[in-house]
Input
Amino acid sequence: MTSVLDTRHLQNPCPSSFNLAAHVLGRAEDVPDKVALTILGLTETEQWSYAKLKLAVLGTGTGLLNMGLKPYDRVLIRLGNTVDFPISYLAAIAVGLIPVPTSSQLSEAEVAKILATLQPQAILHADGVALPSTDIPVINTAQLQAMRNLPAADWQMGDPNRPAYIIYTSGTSGKARAVVHAHRAIWARQMMFDGWYGLNTDDRLCHAGAFNWTYTLGTGLMDPWTSGATALIPAAEVQAEALPHLLKQHSATIFAAAPGVYRKLLKSNGLPKLPHLRHGLSAGEKLSDTLRDAWQTATGTEIFEAFGMSECSTFISSSPSHAAKVHTLGKPQPGRCVAIIGPDGPVARNQQGVIAVHRSDPGLMLEYLGAQDETQSRFKDDWFLTGDLGQMDDMGQISYLGRADDMMNAGGFRVSPIEVETVLNAYPGVAQMAVTDIEVKQDARLIMAFYTAPAPLSEDELKQYAAQNLADYKQPRGYFHIDALPSGANGKILRRALRPIYEALNGQA
Output
């Protein structure tokens, strides 16, 4: 039996006339007064009904069109951790624009590179979010908020395969890649409702992340709204330590976060009883068995983990309906077609290979913008190769065996070492720089940098330089001067060999 699990017959096809935002807010007609969103502040809350949310989205859509934008124009989103972010994102899609959400942590230098390749027709910008000087029209938050009261725009319906949005992900080439997704991507997310979330209309799903994180945007907002549930999002000032009280106060039934947040909550001064909480969700980085067990002991609830990537969101997971076996990710979600691929195609069960998704998956990206050759290189026949190694057992459960390349995971963000090294190698005095992520303690991975130079350089000045040119999550947390970087016979840096060097330098050998 080959390592192919095909359940595509369980997924209905996407309608031929479709709009992602219209699908997300499709419940607004049936439950206009129901609370779609509660923003959890420390002393007060802000609530948005489905009707209010829909009017804000379509009013903002009208405003964007009134600014002279037209369907298929690209709109770069440089907004902070506020409700402006999802409203603007959905508004752009509603009227046929192509929003490009980006992390507010990106530096001016990083945004400048995006502007050069993306060439957007407008930028949505909040004060305090990095943005280089540009001639591209900039729309500020005051203008966006004023648009909410404009007459509602019409949904721009069309082919579900047309581009809907673009997100950036680090690539092995050292250059951030623009991943183009179709409107049908939201249709594919329904496979997560039973395959991961166990989501229903009565749920109150709290996501610990910021509004402007794509994990929050999908799992924390769009999916609850699609199902008619209520989304709970902490206000910008809320720290992790306050989350347990808010979960209890607002009767959260599902809690979603990256593993690092669970780790912080378990280190707090005891978790309160959470009688309404059914289970937790985890994604962004590998969840350890130790952390999962500790959460279950403390709360009496399970954490269900999902595996995915920017090019296809999550597609392998455990859920209340099918728990993962120990040391596995779970199974491909119902409706998916997933395989483990070797040099000659799908391998036999219990054999190692690259985790792959079939080309027909509605959640799979359209392309890397402006990189047709790179797009095609990710496919082997009809399989999209994730670059992650795995093994499928006889029951269809998949074990994660690590990355086929050297991609790093920093706090849930996938980061290319080449991207970081390209920036740091330009620092005066550096001969050669290499970075990798290292597990500095159980369940905690940090990016560390190793460099050769005639003499050790100031770590403080290196960190200052990195802060000026890299987003916070891409910045190394330590710098180590060594005589030579480990390399193979062909001269390629062996980044995995940096970890024993770190252990030796820190007395852990």
